[in-house]
Amino acid sequence: MDNIKNIVFDYGNVIFNIDFSKVAAAWAKLGVNNASDFYGHRNQDPVFDLLEQGKISDADFRDRIRQLTHKPELTDEQIDGAWNSIFVGIPQGNHELLLKVKQKYRTFLLSNINSIHYDYVHDYLEKNFGLENNNQFFEKIYYSHLVGKRKPGKEIFEQVLQENNLKPAETLFIDDSPQHIATAKKLEIQTYLMTAPDTIQQFFKKEGLI
């Protein structure tokens, strides 16, 4: 990893640990036995992509979940609770690392997220860290549902590069999804695929980036 001047971070399983299996377990507790048919890390019903691009409302999303689960009786709170159960927590030291990294590099956050998860994350930050948002850790943040684009589409990567005058060869992108890494590589961005049990703290130490 040579000549790195800019670092673009994914959020889930890079900064904030998540667990897709917890969502399936939460659905099961609600009596939903077909969750794997419509939701997964790599394959999911189009409603999830639409929500992550801000193209449908939370209400429309919940109605679609009731259709997919064949459970019209599910409440908004039950759906949101199951959907938000994906979040595990932010490991101790991650925020401190991000502040250190920001002192040396231009840093950005690029996250596929949706309004329901967005609200949960900000509530979590407030309750656990006394933070209103993630703004102090990055020069600029790109949340898919606010931008109207999502990874692995190249358009959202191009927007980050162009708006901030970033040279791909000087930019490192860290993400936990191979399909997102593949797009970045096509744009000649340097990449690192984060896979458990690796962590960003271990990665930066190993690579000598701070």
Please provide a written account of the structure.
- The chain has 210 residues and is α/β, with parallel strands linked by helices.
- 47% of the residues lie in helices and 13% in strands.
- The chain contains 11 helices and 7 strands.
- The protein has a 5-stranded parallel sheet with strand order 5-4-1-6-7, sandwiched between helices.
- The longest helix has 15 residues.
- The two termini are 13 Å apart.
- The model has no long low-confidence stretch (mean pLDDT 95).
Task: Report a brief summary of the structure.
The protein is 47% helix and 13% strand. It has 210 residues and is α/β, with parallel strands linked by helices. Strand 6, helix 10 and strand 7 (190-193) form a beta-alpha-beta unit.
Label this structure with key terms.
single chain; 210 residues; alpha/beta; five-stranded parallel β-sheet; two-stranded antiparallel ribbon; 13% strand; globular
Helix content bin: 40-55%
Low-confidence stretches: none
Strand/helix succession: EEHHHHHEHEHEHHEHEH
Give the termini separation.
Answer: 13 Å
Q: Tell me the number of strands.
A: 7
| Count of alpha/pi helices | 11
Largest sheet: 5 strands, parallel
Shape field: globular
| Adjacency order of strands in the biggest sheet | 5-4-1-6-7
Question: Which percent band covers the strand fraction?
Answer: 5-15%
- Overall mean pLDDT stands at 95
The radius of gyration is: 17 Å
Structural class: alpha/beta
